[in-house]
Amino acid sequence: MNDHLVIATGGNDTIRIYAALSSATVETARKIHDPWPTAIAAFGRVLTGTLITGAMSDNPYRLTVKFSGDGPLGTVLAVSNRRGEVKGYLENPRVDLDLNSSGKLDVGAAIGSGIITVIKDYGLKNPYQGVAPLQNGEVAADFSYYFAKSEQTPTAVSLGVLVNPDGTVKVSGGLIIQLMPGASEEQIEFLEGKLSQLPPVTTILGSGGSPSELINEVAGETGVKILEKIDIRYHCDCSRERFLGPLLSLGHQELKGIIKEQGKIEVRCHFCNQLYHYDQSELI
Ligand SMILES: [Zn+2]
């Protein structure tokens, strides 16, 4: 099954449900950034949460989600768009901690306390920016609190990454449920009850279940209507030309200095590790 995201409604259009299978996307991110197990679990959750959040608006836009915590991972950042593309980076990928008291990868300790920043760039002059304090650094609860606090939308979030003994990604996915305006107290209670009984998303996806099955599992009784299916992937849109502008903005003197010192200028993309070489004739 290829990575994809399914968007559905339930409860007579009062619930919006998003479910994603992101195993190959997160494995691609692992190959690029080479994070250790706790780090890839954190990174995979952030990438998947950002992918789903990026699909929430009908308008094409660029969504950036940044986790700035005081844990050993440092900053974890992801950028996605409405086309199901995501890229990201971690400040310190070489983080692997002891399992937490529930026997799970300790993402909360790896991220620590701090803030989540969400930037929605619609291509207008001022991008929308929302900030909320991290709840526990486990990513799902942090997204959920952000939606409630910053966007006033009650939202349940479940994100999971299972890592193989050799450090590769076994399965990754996520489920986000939002109450649309007009949802009743009963629907909220019903949904909260269902969610609390639901096994982790990785249990259903890991045994071959699809995102649609995940949606039916949680909200099938409320009359689910599938709206859209979007293929998702790790994709970086960088290019030689893109880095040229920022390089030139360093100024003549600065560039001359670097070339004198190093004989050439190289720029490495933080998102995909691609190395770009520029020679003197292009810059000065
Ligand atoms: Zn790149």
Level of helix content?
25-40%
Uncertain stretches of 5 or more adjacent residues: none
Strand order of the largest sheet: 7-6-3-4-5-11
> Kindly state the mean pLDDT as a whole number?
92
**How many β-strands, per DSSP?**
13
Note the run of SSEs as H and E.
EEHHEEEHEEHEEHHHEEHHEEH
Find the CATH topology of the largest domain.
Answer: Hsp33 domain
Main β sheet profile: 6 strands, mixed
CATH superfamily of the largest domain: Hsp33 domain
The tally of structural domains comes to 2
Topology:
Blueprint: E1 4-10, E2 15-21, H1 23-33, H2 37-54, E3 62-69, E4 75-81, E5 85-90, H3 107-111, E6 114-121, E7 128-133, H4 140-150, E8 155-163, E9 169-179, H5 185-197, H6 201-206, H7 211-219, E10 225-231, E11 233-234, H8 240-248, H9 252-262, E12 265-268, E13 275-278, H10 280-283
Parallel strand pairs: 5-11
Antiparallel strand pairs: 1-2, 1-10, 2-9, 3-4, 3-6, 4-5, 6-7, 8-9, 12-13
Helix pairs in contact: 1-2
